[in-house]
Amino acid sequence: MAGVQFKQWALEYVLSDEETAQLELARKAAREIESSHANSTVVGNWAASIQQWMSPAHDDDQLDDIQASGGGNIITRAKGAYSMMLNRQPEYDFSSDSLGTIFTALSFLSSTLEALDKGTLKSDQGIPVSPVQSSCVIPYADLLSVQRLIGFFGSMFSYDHKAGITAASKALRQLSAMKGFKPPMGVKILEDVCKIKEDFRLQTALTRLEVYELFLRLLQDSAVASELQHKYGSSAGFILDLLELCANERDPRNLMTWFKTITVLLKDYDLSPEVAEEIFKTFSAYFPISLRNTTTQIAITADDLKEAIRSCFAAHHCISSFVFPFLLQKLDQGDAVTVAVKLDILKTMRACVESYGNPQISLAPYVEKLWNSLKYEVRNGDVKETIDATLDVLRAIAKRLDGTSGQKLNVSLLTDYVDLVIRDCRDDLSKPSYTKQAGLLLITVICATVRGYLLYNASFIDFLRQNIRQPKSPSHTDDLLLLLNSFLKSRMELVVQRGEKYREDQESLNCEAHTHLKSLFHDIYLPIWSKRAAEPTSEEGDVLKKVAEGLARLATQQVVQPTGDIVLLNSPPVCSEICSLLTEELIKGLDMNPDDSKSDDHTLEDQVVLALRTIVMVYRDGYAELVARAVAEIRKRDWANPSHHSLNSLRDLLSRLSFIGCSKIPAHIAMTTPSKKPYSPLQHFVTFVASLLDLFPLTRQAHEECLANAHIVSSLHAGLLWFRDACDEKYGNAVFTWGSTNQINLKEIPDDFFTAVHRGDVTLVSLSESSPSVYHEFVKLGLFLVVHLYRSATLGPRELWSERALVQVSQMAALITRMLSIDEQVSLNLAHEAFNFFRRPNDEAVEKNLSYVSSGLLTLGILQGLRPEAMTELVSLLSVYQSQLNKANSSQYALGGVAEQFMCDACDLMQHQQKASDIRGAICTVLANKFKPGPSFSNSESLTLNQTFDFWAEWIKNATSLEKGISSESFEVILPIALGVITGSIARQDKHVLDLVPILHQAISNKHANGEILAKSMGILFKPNNLLSPEYHAILKRFYRQWAYFSITKPLFALAQPAAADGHSASRYRIAIIFMVANCPFTIYQDDLDSLIPLLITSLTGGSNSNSFTGKDVVFTQAFAALQILTEILGNGPDALKSHLREIINGAKMIYSKCCGNVGDENLAATRTRCRKLALHVLGMIPLKFEERHIIAYAPPTQRMLAVACGDAVRKVREVARQARASWAKVA
């Protein structure tokens, strides 16, 4: 039965075209063999299952004779059929169909072997001889062991070059992984496969790939390698056969495997020089390798091939005598070598230098030749990539000559190399044309190793000092300083990486001489700065930038003490002098008049800022000195009536101070003498905050903007942002692991807290710079700063605080509040403080010192950062501020909490400006979005915020009705509050919003003027809102904007069409739709373009129902919104506009014409300018999105119109007009 099964499975395998079905059949055969424990009969039947495809038709009779005469001897019958197949004569040709069938049949055997458990077949098991029925003929009964299967499949390479090679290779690879596989079998496989000889190149690429993978599998086997080495010795005859067989391979995938195989041969086999040379000749013939573009997609790239062949070059030092001359010969071909090829050569050379063992033999003999070739790549090179790659090779040579894998080499190898470089480059330092190149070569070689640095650094600095004292030009000085700075940078890298490879390096650095380094400031940097800093020219400015960079490098140099500790190289007085020198440049702007600044180039100031930041991160006392100096200079000025230039200088100075001290966390590095203050990662932040709070206010005179004071507050905000980013960069996700600060009592924070910390009266928590707790302590200090500013703004003189300053305080509060956890926000009672402003029991009432706008901004700042769970008390509990809210509204709707009452209280806004209403609307957006009743609230949620909706629904009804309508001025003031409540609720998809939709639609269509105001304000519901963002813990449901669009906007399309019966209502609905859609992403409304486009055209062209019911201000803002939508459609789905091009082009031209001319209203004039610009932009996009045949009829009049528009009065409009004209000029 097993024999019949195997034959059936083999037949199904041959007939099947699906790979999955074939694999399943192979698995069935494998399971059958495994279940029989590799019974000889079962294995024989499996092997015999393909005999019908392996013999020509006229051999069947011969096979029958064998079967008939063999009696019960299964071995006799098997050997007869087997030898018949092996001795098949070449004249027995097969058709292509027969070859394909034979290939598939053999694949059945190889796939079975792949699925078979590797321990099933024995190495060489005996074959039982037993009488069997004549019907149970098993002609392949010899194939019952790994050895005999190897013999069978190996014979394919001698007799079946057309059909069986792929399957045989695959089968042999699987057999080599069997437990019964023995090393001599691997030798036999290699010998059998090599018998294919010249027929190998005639095989398909996939077939050859199978053979390459077989070679790689066998040669990587250590046991097979040992057997091959034992049999062939270093002459390695089998390798020569492989090289001959695989010559001239061109397929990229095959080359990848072949190069891996070559790498294995070089690394793992003991080769004679002659064989190594033959291998080198084989793979070097491909270098430099490239990949032709073909239509066939392969996963191999040119870089993959380059890396593969590079691994061959770098495999073993036994081929070094061939490699380096070969690569140098390729490199020295001059202009014939492209940049890409040169980079490939240099990368390969570096890989060889770094990989070869025994550098005394493999590298040292070629150092001089390498140097004599490579130096010109740097000296005369002009391509940065090749210069860098060359320097990498030179650096690798120095490191390799220094030692290998933890063992130092004789120092003479390294010194001979460095002396060679110095001899060729020293004189070039005095030649401006070659200074930079020579210096780079010297620095690369000297600073490649600690030993080289210690031996030659003093002489190199002496070379630079001599040339800096006698420069040929400012640019020469600039290059020399660049080299000195690079040298200091390289030195620090050596100090930081000390001991990584050799322990001796760290011990050597302990004894380093420092005198020549310490003298650099007074000998080089200070004289150059003092000579040029007064009135630098452009070239001298470049020199000063290099000096500033160098001072930072010098001040941060560290040395290793004999104890192994790290300290700063320079003494505190020298570091202080460096900081003072750079601070002079930093505060220079305060003394300058506007006319003194002859250039807008601030790169020197920027470099000074970067230098100071670098310095104060290690010389920590420097920041306190810097800030004290800057504050003293600021106090000297009169800020009562400052000029615009003075205010800008103050702003720049303060912002630079915040960046210098707060954008990085200072390092804990000791000095030769103790620092003035104990180390704290937050000390610069505290110094900055304390100094600016002490500086505030700069002026006590009332100004409309009070910019000097506002700049101080803005800089405090910048300091918070910089330090937060510094914590995120250093600690990453670890900052979200919160500690507890529940013991904080905000009421007990003294007003002079930061000053006391700065003086040292209060000590901060001791922390290391690597501890994420630094972030938590920063948030706590940030909260203290917010508390201080809130108290100052609410209790101090009102004239000190402009609206601009309060906006910054509000944003600071939002920033710090959102960083707190839920427990922190609740324990600190921040929801209550949003209305109390951190007042203490004895503080005076807020109303005496704050305007409505000011109090609103401060409330918004805290609420914006709160989490919904921390705001429950605003919903569920009555507040002490309930008496300040509108009694009529609260009693009518029985509102229970501060949030509901606040959202419904609008009567006190009637007398205030629009800005106050917008702020109240923003607060209501936050309250409505984070609405979450607490557990103590007695009613369900549907009876709380739903009552707020009821209030505003009633108000909107009355305010837009002709009978009860209020004035448009009052409506515009209060409407943002109602829309704020709805906007916040939409984001969390509050189902009660749906009850408001019919009321909104009806109010829009009412004939009262307020209906038009509501229509154009509907876009607020969809406008992106920073208050509703995840970082501020807003409740955002997925697809909430789609939900709102489907519920509010889409029902209006049918009612807004130009042909609608009620022209007034259609016009209002059209306004609402356009303003809502203009604030939506294209993906939301893309399915409604057929209904939307007619509305856009009507808005542009002024159809019968378009503008007759609309005010002029709405006409232009509506047109602008329509043009915005058209821009989105042109960018994302222009095909929808193809049938409307004439109307769109005419409409855009019409809008441009209507918006020309002067108007008295500045706001309306600005809207018209934006409309003209956007109309021209739409016209310019059309030729880019449509074929010429669709728009050629409109080209002449449009081109004439654009020619006129190029003379528009506004420059930015003219620019867009010229771009549009250029687009249309391409239309014939």
From TrEMBL:
One of the GO biological process terms: iron-sulfur cluster assembly
Compartments where located: Nucleus
Entry's Gene Ontology cellular component terms: cytosolic [4Fe-4S] assembly targeting complex; nucleus
Domain MMS19 C-terminal: 800-1147
Superkingdom to which the source organism belongs: Eukaryota
Any Pfam family: MMS19_C
Annotated MMS19 N-terminal domain residues: 145-378
Record's keyword terms, sorted: DNA damage, DNA repair, Nucleus, Repeat
Coiled-coil stretches: none
InterPro entries in alphabetical order: ARM-type_fold, MMS19, MMS19_C, MMS19_N
Protein family per UniProt: Belongs to the MET18/MMS19 family.
Biological role stated in the UniProt entry: Key component of the cytosolic iron-sulfur protein assembly (CIA) complex, a multiprotein complex that mediates the incorporation of iron-sulfur cluster into apoproteins specifically involved in DNA metabolism and genomic integrity. In the CIA complex, MMS19 acts as an adapter between early-acting CIA components and a subset of cellular target iron-sulfur proteins.
Name assigned to this protein: MMS19 nucleotide excision repair protein
